């Protein structure tokens, strides 16, 4: 029998106010401390809730961070692919912005955290993709470049975007300092 049919679930009722407090606290602490120094204890203290409350709703720090990102409470100035009319330069600039973001002190664990959260839950993975809009926005920019004749008409757009994003994710998982020309080399490799 579903809970809505009159059966009361066990445990404390999930409070939307407490959920938002946790996500907002995550956003504030992430902005001041970065991902690597973010802790469940710190989030709980900042939000005015117990650690138990957080763990009742989220399985890990990664899951809380993913939800805060989905709710647009993290990284308000996310890198976007520019449209200068030069697809190669635009993709290189965007990839460099992404590499610079994760190279900032305290942020090197962010991508690993999001990958972990997406691996824990298919729903989080889908919601992250939708919320970040990377597939949609980068695909739209690639499709515009195809229409403008800058890229081949038969370019498999979705696969190209996945390879581009995958290159960024793999770099982040390696935990290595990006070479100065890393963004250019990745884009050049995919465009040849």
UniProtKB/TrEMBL annotation:
Q: Which Pfam families match?
A: TetR_C_11, TetR_N
The answer to whether UniProt assigns keyword Transcription to this entry is yes
The record places domain HTH tetR-type at 16-76
Q: Does the keyword DNA-binding apply?
A: yes
Segments of the chain annotated as binding DNA: 39-58
Signal peptide as annotated in the record: none
Going by the entry's taxonomy, the superkingdom of the source organism is recorded as: Bacteria
Going by the UniProt record, its keywords in alphabetical order are: DNA-binding, Transcription, Transcription regulation
Q: Which GO terms describe its molecular function?
A: DNA-binding transcription factor activity; transcription cis-regulatory region binding
PANTHER family per UniProt? HTH-TYPE TRANSCRIPTIONAL REGULATOR RUTR (PTHR30055), TETR-FAMILY TRANSCRIPTIONAL REGULATOR (PTHR30055:SF148)
| The protein's name | AcrR family transcriptional regulator
Could you read off the lineage of the organism from its UniProt record? Bacteria, Bacillati, Actinomycetota, Actinomycetes, Propionibacteriales
């Amino acid at each position: 029998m579903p809970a809505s049919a009159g059966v009361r679930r066990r445990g404390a009722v999930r409070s939307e106010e407490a959920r938002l407090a946790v996500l907002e606290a995550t956003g504030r602490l992430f902005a001041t401390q970065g991902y690597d120094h973010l802790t469940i204890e710190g989030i709980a203290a900042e939000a005015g809730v117990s650690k138990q409350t957080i763990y009742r709703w989220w399985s890990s720090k990664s899951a809380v961070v993913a939800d805060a990102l989905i709710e647009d409470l993290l990284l308000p100035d996310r890198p976007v692919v520019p449209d200068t009319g030069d697809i190669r330069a635009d993709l290189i600039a965007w990839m460099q912005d992404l590499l610079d973001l994760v190279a900032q002190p305290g942020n090197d664990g962010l991508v690993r955290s999001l990958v972990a959260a997406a691996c824990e839950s298919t729903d989080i993975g889908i919601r992250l993709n939708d919320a970040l809009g990377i597939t949609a926005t980068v695909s739209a920019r690639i499709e515009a470049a195809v229409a403008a004749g800058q890229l081949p008409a038969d370019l498999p757009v979705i696969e190209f975007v996945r390879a581009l994003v995958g290159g960024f994710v793999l770099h982040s998982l390696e935990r290595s300092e990006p070479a100065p020309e890393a963004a250019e080399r990745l884009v050049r490799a995919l465009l040849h």
